[in-house]
Amino acid sequence: MTHTVIWTIAIITVLGLVLALVLYLVAKKFKVEEDPRIDEVEKVMPGANCGGCGFAGCRAFAEAAVKSPDLEGVFCPVGGNDVMAKVASILGYEVKAKAPEVAVVRCNGTCEARPRVNEYDGFATCAVKAALYAGDTACAYGCLGCGDCVAACQFGALSMDPATGLPVVDEEKCTACGACVKACPKKIIELRQKGPRGMREFVSCVNKDKGPVAKKACANACIGCGLCAKTCIHEAITMAVNIAWIDSYKCKLCRECEAVCPTGAIHGVNFPKPLDKDAVKARIAERKKKATEAKAAEAALVAEAAKEAAHE
After folding, report:
1. Side-chain-facing half-sphere of 100: CA atoms under 13 Å
2. How many C-beta atoms surround the C-beta of residue 85 within 10 A?
3. In the chain, where the domains are located
4. What is the DSSP track for the chain?
5. What pLDDT digit, counting tens, does each position of 61-94 carry?
6. How far is 52 from 261, CA to CA, in rounded Å?
7. Which of 73, 173, 248, 252 has the highest count of CB atoms within 10 angstroms of its CB?
8. What's the mean pLDDT in 245-271?
């Protein structure tokens, strides 16, 4: 019995040593050398692991940055330009500064403007609600009000306003990670440039129905009239599927589109003074008058030149 125990212990010990040696040799043969710069890049990352960069976390971002031939298309929204400058320094790359962005809620369907037509008594989440039906109101495109975006934000930058039933973005806390954008099943949240001194213009509506239908569903809806696009002299507004969209790169913040919008669907944010619609409309009218007079004068000159040519 004693010999059996001794032999068992000896065999198990030898077998363990052999297997350990095999594992060691296999590990040595198939060892993957990791670029030490990955650790350096990860150290300068904010460590939020929010996924806003499009990767699983800060470590995955660091690996992608090191393997990339340049930093084109690789950006950490939480760390911003400061972190990207450090990453570029580590990797010996050049990086272009990116304009800071902020989450914008493109729905202005408040409780008053978009009254409920039914009551939802299910699990309180926008994802489930959107999968079951269009929503509590006649607008099938608007905010569902369950706060999935609030739950998705790791930085406490979103909250639900009980008076309007809509999410509110705290610009000071928003890192433009995009988590709220992904969480919203109605796609009403968009990342936009903050703009100079935080000023920006955007269309707070995504309703693609035709004007009368959209207006009936929500008093604040964009009705696709195109008046804003016709007014904008900077060609910053485009119309598509009955909805206006403002290009923040082209917008000069003149606020003329906001002044002429008949439903108030266009919002101006962080401007130092309230919008004087009458003054802006007067400015537009004066510009159109001068343009008409200039066109008439040009036509008269052309007619005069033609008349003189005919006499010759």
Report:
1. 19
2. 13
3. 37-91, 101-269
4. -HHHHHHHHHHHHHHHHHHHHHHHHHHHHTPPPPPTHHHHHHHHS------TTSSSSHHHHHHHHHHSSS-TT---TTTHHHHHHHHHHHHT--------EEEEE-----TTTS-BSS---S-S-HHHHHHH-S-SBS-SSS---S-HHHHH-TTS-EEEETTTTEEEE-TTT-----HHHHH-TT--EEEEE--GGG-EEEE-----S-HHHHHHH-TT------HHHHH-TT--EEEETTEEEE-TTT-----HHHHH-SS--EEEES-SS---HHHHHHHHHHHHHHHHHHHHHHHHHHHHHHHHHHH-
5. 999 999 988 888 889 998 999 999 999 999 989 8
6. 34
7. 248
8. 96
- Superfamily (CATH) of domain 37-91: Electron transport complex subunit B, putative Fe-S cluster (1.10.15.40)
Taking 70 as the threshold, does the pLDDT of residue 149 lie above it? yes
pTM for the full predicted model: 0.80
Cα(144)–Cα(146) distance, rounded to whole angstroms?
A: 6
Task: Count other C-beta atoms under 10 Å from residue 80's C-beta.
Answer: 17
